[in-house]
Structure prediction request, 338 residues.
Amino acid sequence: MAGTVFVSGGSGYIAGFLIRQLIAEGWTVHTTIRNLARESEVRDSLGVDNTKLKFFAADLHSDAGWAEAMAGCSHAAHVASPLPADKPKHEDDLIVPARDGALRALKAAKTAGIKRFVMTSSMAAIAYGHGPGKSVFTEADWTDPTSPDAYPYVRSKTIAERAARDWVAAEGGDMEFCTVNPSLVLGPLQSGDFSTSLEAIKKLLEGSMPGMPNLGFGIVDVRDVADMHVRCLTAPNMAGERFVCSGPFLMLEDVAAILREGLGPQARKVPKLKLPNWLVRIAARFDPVIGQVIGELGKRRESPPNHARDVLGWVPRPVEESILDTARDMIRLGIVKV
Ligand code: NAP
Prediction:
């Protein structure tokens, strides 16, 4: 199947891989960026058949541009949402564009007669605020956005997915809606402009952390995330579906071991020391970014992608490949000096 598909946030990491795969499979893509002044830079980094790609200006904060970008499309992938490295000044800096942007995209999609709408949500909307004792999560779980565990990004993704599902139930009509819920996304880089999700690998490689906090995350490869979006755009009967999009859960020390094993001397700065939780808690008093994840210390959040395997035939690649491809590209592009 191919036709014309809308993808929001063409400058982003996941959207870039998605656009490349869609064009390689014969689709024409309409994508949005906030400002068309970036069009040629984004085109260069995508490196696709330019006749198959059209850019439109649209911002999650404004109604302008969404209708024009969706016109003529049969399918839509709403990928754009803020993913900052730093703690926002106010949580609404994330929640408002995530939620209102999704609703803007949905309304424009309905007006344009889009048949299938795939939204990039997150494990952040699934696996937080459940209290101690729960470490395995499925599509049936929802983050409690009122929990102290739910930091602003987690709240933004949960509130946005809820709002989107509520809107679709009330107003969506025949448009099929589903979500892809990735864990931490790693994988190859096309340029030095990379997603916040790759920061952990950068910090490990450059040795900028004195040791490793007792933190872990589910990991998934950007190529597999893009592939799940394409499957969701094209598989039959996707209405209401929700897919965990994750490989295994690894602690930072496991990631460090994979880097050492795979990179040899290039991993010389990767720390070996594990930081005790009490030390990280003290550091969090002085660093708001560490403060955001303090509730994560020692937590495990496993999320086997059984549903995606059964319904979509989706199987993630080995996590070692994703970690080492991230690291090798960071070295190749000069993002880290090893
Ligand atoms: P990314 O590279 O930072 O991409 C985010 C995209 O959203 C960029 O294109 C960005 O545009 C756009 N955006 C942000 N604020 C916007 C606004 N106000 N108006 C219009 N566009 C705006 O991050 P990514 O990893 O590809 O993330 C893409 C999606 O995946 C997001 O929905 C994110 O929540 C979700 N996700 C990511 C991960 C992960 O680990 N990376 C995990 C789970 C879910 P600019 O280039 O102009 O900033």
User: Anything to note?
Assistant: The two ends are 44 Å apart (CA to CA). The pocket of NAP is lined by residues 9, 11-15, 34, 59-61, 79-83, 97, 120, 122, 157, 182, 184-185, 195, 197 (CB under 6 Å). The mean pLDDT is 95.
